[in-house]
Amino acid sequence: MVIGYKNKGVPVAQILFTARKDAKAVHADYNSKLLEDLLGHWKRGMGKNTCSEEFSVSVAITDNDTRKRFALKATWDGVFLILCRFHTWQAWWNGLNRSLQLVPNHKQHVLHQRLAKLLMKLLKDITTYETAITSYNEELLYFKNVKQTVHEPLIQKKQMLVSSFLPTFKTT
Question: What is the pTM for the complete model shown?
Answer without folding.
Answer: 0.62
